[in-house]
Amino acid sequence: MSLLQQPVQPALRLSRQAIRQHARQLRQQLPAATRASAATELVQQVFDQAELTSKQHFALYLANDAELNTEPLIKALWQAGKDVYLPVLHPFCPGYLLFLHYDSTTELRANHFGIPEPRLNCANVIPVAQLDVIFAPLVAFDAAGNRLGMGGGFYDRTLAQLPRHSPCQVIGLAHNCQQVAAVPVEPWDIPLQQVITPAKYFDFR
């Protein structure tokens, strides 16, 4: 059992930065074969959920920093006739994301983090509230659905725009090793409704 998955006493609770650093190291150390099989297993986990396969508008992301590879899932969603959207750094509201339609013909460019994103075209933007499913990247998560990201707060700010009782499902995607005993929670954190790993589907609702 990883140190981060062991029960944590309140006085010994690890900082967000310590958890973030260790979880990133764990996923970066995964062998290439494990990462490849994880991406395939993710597709099966998603398509095993009838609640998800009935949806139409899916926001995803392109993997960075050894995140769980979403490309096979994106291709599977395209083949199933679903609409896929990718996040783009908001050009006028720093710290926020826009979601743009993405298909095999979409031109990508690297943002200032070096992450590929679609070229901004207002005609391809979908309001966050119109998305059916948002698959969010994360660094670590716990059994209560608390999410730890990279520290920029982009998803927390953007997800805070969803109406209180929005039907949009916000689901974290992670390698199995990214589950930790407890994520220290801040007031601005938006908890996840579900997390999907290659091995398990977590429902926190």
UniProtKB/TrEMBL annotation:
Q: Where does ATP bind?
A: R16, Q17, A18, I19, R20, R147, L148, G149, M150, G151, G152, G153, F154, Y155
Reactions accelerated catalytically = (6S)-5-formyl-5,6,7,8-tetrahydrofolate + ATP = (6R)-5,10-methenyltetrahydrofolate + ADP + phosphate
Q: Which SUPFAM superfamilies match?
A: NagB/RpiA/CoA transferase-like
Keywords, alphabetical: ATP-binding, Ligase, Magnesium, Metal-binding, Nucleotide-binding
Question: What top-tier enzyme class does this entry carry?
Answer: ligase
Read off the InterPro entries from this record: FTHF_cligase, FTHF_cligase-like_sf, NagB/RpiA_transferase-like
- Reported EC number(s) for this entry are 6.3.3.2
- Please list the GO terms describing molecular function: 5-formyltetrahydrofolate cyclo-ligase activity; ATP binding; metal ion binding
Residues that bind substrate, according to the entry? L62, E67
One Gene Ontology term from the biological process aspect of the record: tetrahydrofolate interconversion
Q: What's the cofactor?
A: Mg(2+)
Q: What Pfam families does the entry give? A: 5-FTHF_cyc-lig (PF01812)
**Which protein family is it in?**
Belongs to the 5-formyltetrahydrofolate cyclo-ligase family.
Q: What is this protein called?
A: 5-formyltetrahydrofolate cyclo-ligase
Q: Which organism is it from?
A: Arsukibacterium ikkense
